[in-house]
Amino acid sequence: DQLRILNANTKFVTCPIYYATSSPHIGHIHSSVIGDFYHRWNKINDVASKFSLGTDEHGQKIIRSAAQQGYDHPEILVNNISDLYRRTFKKFSISVASLDDAIFMRTTTSEHHQAAQKLWTRLRSKGFIKMQNYEGCAVNGHKLEWVSEENYIFEFEPFLNEIESWIVKAVAPDAAKILIDELKDRRKTGNMSLSISRPRNRVPWGVAVPNDANHTMYVWFEALINYLTAAGYGKHDNNALEFWPPQLQVIGIDIARFHCIFWPAMLLAAELPLPKKVFVHGHWTRDGMKMSKSLDNFVTPKELLELVGNQSDAVRWFCLKHATLKNVDFQDELLRIQSDADLANKIANLLSRTTSKNLNPSGAYPTLFPDSLLNAPDGEKYLIETVQGLPELYASFVNAGQLPNAMNCVIRAIEEGLQFMTNEKIFKLDRDILSERMKKDSGDDDEL
Ligand code: ME8
């Protein structure tokens, strides 16, 4: 039962599947823009790429939300919310359609049920899933109750060392440190198993445990498997996947424990390769506070679009510019000022100046040649160096997961371009001198 990867050259970028309990907000857009960015990065570099994101539609939270919102059945809620996510992502140019090689995952599909049950059966047959009597607190309706019930547990102690060395390779040092501290803690307290089922009579909305009608899979255990579902696990009878492992998994720090401890344990137990990299980002806060339902202070997609005159690219730019592990406080002015400064006053400004009829009457797109630098007047040399070095510098930041640096190095190059125009008093130069200089720099021009 040798694992076979049907498209071994395809890169796979994943985003979380978001709870289908309520409307999307800035945080969901943030993660999804980062994932979509890397998917597009693959594609512009001519690398085959798949991208997944979607909605997490099972479990007690969903049951409760549906009841609170007056729905007769959780299914109505998850259909509505899932659709809302899809429409919202489209507004922000986040790939959600199959045309973009994107897979929109929903955990209520039969493919996902099948994949989750297949993985469960595999781990059970390998002896990593056991039945246990559980005593502790559980939420029942709105009440916290002491329960004593049977449930299944997944034991991941055998994999702790492998997980630790994987974290060091796959996760950026600042986030890795947090995770390794948690591993130490678990070793100390002996907390090395995860409860992975709930009684079906308490949580009927979920994937059934194979061969046991009394249990539903714990939603987190099942939700993580969505990445395998997206890769075709369960679709094929034998041990084949369409592409695997993920090249990059984008997540928020809130779900790092699930993705960097439990998830690799599940994959190791199933003898499946681990993701290459995990991109862990921090959270947007508002007025210094966590955004939450009780405070009702989420930054909504509508607000974001209104702040930037409906230019969703400005929001994408803003997210990438702030894609760090540190939390960032959202302020209307921050989005407005930064998008004006970077996009309007710099990128658009340089573009319109360099393509204006006055400066560039033939609409030529000058190409830089290796010897441009040698022949350039002194005042131009630093600029040519910056422009020539930019693709490599940008790529090195992107590949290192340093998106704010990547965005900022583009802006710095543009600032140099603008500065150059001011220093050289480009607008005062004679048209003829200008077109002479353009010719000299670029040889044969490509038409714009
Ligand atoms: O946790 N700032 O879903 P979720 C930045 N269904 N990103 C944020 C954010 C914020 N304030 N709030 C949320 C779940 N996010 C599970 C995931 S995956 C197998 C299952 C982003 O709807 C961030 O990526 O609570 C975070 O990890 C995710 O949304 C959680 O979304």
Q: Walk across the major sheet and give the strand order.
A: 4-3-2-11-12
Spatial extent as radius of gyration: 26 Å
Quaternary class: single chain
Structure classification: alpha/beta
Model description:
The chain is of the alpha/beta class and 448 residues long. The chain has 16 helices and 17 strands. It has helices spanning 26-44, 60-68, 74-91, 110-125, 160-170, 173-189, 219-224, 226-230, 256-269, 301-307, 312-321, 332-354, 372-375, 378-399, 403-423, 431-442, and strands at residues 4-5, 11-19, 49-56, 102-106, 129-140, 143-155, 193-195, 197-199, 215-217, 240-241, 248-252, 277-281, 284-286, 289-290, 328-330, 364-365, 446-447. The strands form 6 sheets. It has a 5-stranded parallel β-sheet with strand order 4-3-2-11-12, sandwiched between helices. Strands 5-6-7 form a 3-stranded antiparallel β-sheet. Helix 2 (60-68) packs across helix 3 (74-91) and helix 6 packs across helix 9. It is elongated. It starts with a strand and ends with a strand. Residues 443-448 have low confidence and may be disordered. It binds ligand ME8. Ligand ME8 is lined by residues 16-19, 27-28, 30-31, 56, 223-224, 226, 251-252, 254-255, 283-284, 291.
Task: Describe the secondary-structure layout.
Elements: E1 4-5, E2 11-19, H1 26-44, E3 49-56, H2 60-68, H3 74-91, E4 102-106, H4 110-125, E5 129-140, E6 143-155, H5 160-170, H6 173-189, E7 193-195, E8 197-199, E9 215-217, H7 219-224, H8 226-230, E10 240-241, E11 248-252, H9 256-269, E12 277-281, E13 284-286, E14 289-290, H10 301-307, H11 312-321, E15 328-330, H12 332-354, E16 364-365, H13 372-375, H14 378-399, H15 403-423, H16 431-442, E17 446-447
Parallel strand pairs: 1-10, 2-3, 2-11, 3-4, 11-12, 13-15
Antiparallel strand pairs: 5-6, 6-7, 8-9, 13-14, 16-17
Helix pairs in contact: 2-3, 5-6, 6-9, 11-12, 12-15, 14-15
Bound molecules: ligand ME8.
Ligand ME8 binds next to strand 2, helix 1, helix 7 and strand 11.
